[in-house]
Write a structure and sequence with these properties.
The complex is a heterodimer of chains A (637) and B (219). Helices cover 53% and strands 10% of the residues of chain A. By secondary structure, chain A is an alpha+beta fold. In chain A, helix 17 packs across helix 28, helix 17 packs across helix 29 and helix 30 crosses helix 33. Chain B has four helices and seven strands, in the order ββαββαββαβα. The two termini of chain B are 16 Å apart. The chains are: A alpha+beta (637), B alpha/beta (219). The interface between A and B is large, with 44 and 48 residues.
Chain lengths: 637, 219
Amino acid sequence: MASSHGNTNSEAAKVMEQIITEFYAKSLHIILESRTPYMSSRNFSGERTLSSPSSSSSSSSSVRPRDKWFNLALKECPAALENLDLFCSQGHFEPVVVDVIMVQRPLDCDLVKCSPKRDLTRNSSLKERYPYCWNYEQDEFGCDAKSEKIIERWVVQYENRKIRDTNSGSRRSSNNNLSTLYKKSMLLLRSLYVTVRLLPAYKVYRDLISSGQIWPFAITHRVSSFAENFTCREEAEMQRFGFTPVDTAGGRLCLSVLYCLSLSDVSSEPSTPMSSQLIPDYVGSPLTDPLKRFPSLPVTGTVAHAHPSSSPFSRRHSWSFDHYRASPPSVSFSPSPTYSEPHTLISNPGTRRFQPKTLPPHPPETSHVHKKDSTFDEYCPSPAVSPSQSSAAPSLPIFIPGSHPSKPLLQSESAPVSEPAAKLANFPAYSNKLNFPVRGTGSGSFKSCKTTGFSQPGTAVEKLFSFGKDEARQYSGVKSSSSSRSFPDDFDDTEFPCPFDVDDDDVTDPGSRPESFDKHVPLCEPHEFEGLFTIKKSQDAAVGALVQMLRKAPPLRQDHSNSVNLSQAGRPEIWSNCSQEPNRSSEGQASVQRAGSSSIVSSGLISSKTTADALRELQGYRDMKNSLIGKGSKPHI
Amino acid sequence: MNCEVCQLKELEVEHFEIREVLRCILHTIVFHRALGLVRPKDVDLELFEITYVQCGDIELEKKIDEKIEQFISWVEKHPNKKSQVCLSFFEEKNKQATWFTHKTERLYWEQWYINLNVAQHLKVHSGKSHNSKVVVDPGESALDERMARRAALEASLHEVLFQIIKFVNEKKDHVPPIPHTEGVVYFPHEITIPSSSDSAFGMDMIKRMLHTGHPTMLS
């Protein structure tokens, strides 16, 4: 090629044309290969495109004709060659502009469509929702709304300078010119190859192609011969890197890139939001199992209102499993969200969850928790927890652990989701010179696996806290089985310092509770709860407390206003709402009585309920009580 | 032929980071000087969020690793020293053959100086350490500091890689013609580290220049 010895000008011109054409092709190939997940050379996972063994090793095996150009063998990337003729034809070279675009799905894309647990979606924060939006399923539903951001703009251009620069050219032989051109092009392309991997967008791309997570964004590209100008603001966020042009006899080959300096905020989103959600689900699941037994409790597939209670419960449990055991009555059983709330409040600032109706299921507050962790688990569960269909408060805890958490996990694990999407997506990058955004499905990567450990202290925090795939699986399995015990133990590990630490502190610190509680959950008082927790150590007492809690839960929600009014004594408030006739009858235990007494005091509130409701609840609670008592009595014996 | 010299920005590294840092830099440079047919191989650093590119040549990889190991052992013996690794590219030309000798002459056309400052106090593990230095406690409080330092090093390494790219882009004329020999991937080169004899680095370089190297490629 470059070495061809054509002496005539026409021959040299042809060769030069060919070199330039191939330079275009190779440049596009290099860029697109490292920006479009489908074409990824890194994406070895037994994918189709890379049929040739050439992919990995250098010197071996088959060499495709195009590999010889510039002595750079790349993986196949058909899109890079599509419509190349539109830009390079008969000695006329149009500039090629490649915009690398990060696309985010809008929140509006309902998770509902994607997953059976639609109700939950409501509550979930935007970030939480994102992941699902990217599911292949969703694409099918046609959630078109999305936000795009150009994160890179590559411009490959041949500047013709016949007009003025002709005299500047030296009188070298055409052969020399060509070989020099070829060599310099080669050097430029090698630089390009390295540079492409050093820019921020590459990290995003890498995240997308690595499996393990579903990301709320995708990268696509658009190839055209022109580009809209950036706004001043956009341009301010970008930096330009220009490769030194390669001179030719009649012009010069130019290559430059405008790129966003920081994409970290975008790319990190998926992991952060997810984390908070996970924790609650996790915790909840283990405890919830016992609750499931009770028929009385409404265990619908959907979580009612996404009562905050459920999530808090779970969380708390997860945190101090041992603790939990010691004092079973306090937390574990209260089917009523109210009780759990205090705990949750402690652990999570996102007390809002508990507010049944007024507040959205997914409090923004939780987000901060997420930031700490990029854990896979967290990520998954979130959607499940958030939205709740049924208004019945008690059902939540049970539900979440069992059904929802597991699902999300599964989804996340099934990084393969991205694959199908990729397959479906077309990459007619060049066609028509118009935009051909290719949507990639985001599959999360667990860099953490690689980087975790002290050896890599420098790595981002996310790495430290992220779970490995195996871990994720493990957890998912646990969730599905809803084995409460296993979970907490796992979490106790120092590996997950952030979330757990916080929770522990919260739990231990009564002081923190009141604040959060007051703000978000007027119905229950932390202090009360704490009192119960500490005072009653016998299992009987615990059972009694549980029963009471169960009873009270529904009324609390209904009598929201009332509860608020009773601000005087935190407990009385809580109990008052919940208190019912069954309370007295149910438990004879002294410790429990305490709580009961408080409830009695406020019994006047009960009136708000209809008799039918009361009877129904009573029935359910009795059943629960019996089962609890039976369970609690065993250990004593 | 003029010899272009590139002094890379000094990097402050910890002992255990030397290997990765040097690999990254050396391979990146050689990749730019591997004008034979290459099948690039992406390598993600473990310590940093950086991906660099190798030529995919196993022999080259071995050679670089060997040199790095030598350098590391030198560092262990010579703590508290700023050190330099030099990657030189050259052409070999036959000198006029005399009666009994067939000498080749190396014409250096490019030299890269990688400057490292190995932080001694953070020297860790590695069972090799002969003169185990007093390891200042990397206590709990030190964690943050280490992370910050690591981030800084990552940024610096990133800078160095761009320095290489810029240099390669700006200086192209001195690069010899592409080797046409079959199977030849990269230009002849050598990696020079401070000698174990503790002699001046420059002297060592001179000695090596006098040696007859193996004609790796490119005749």
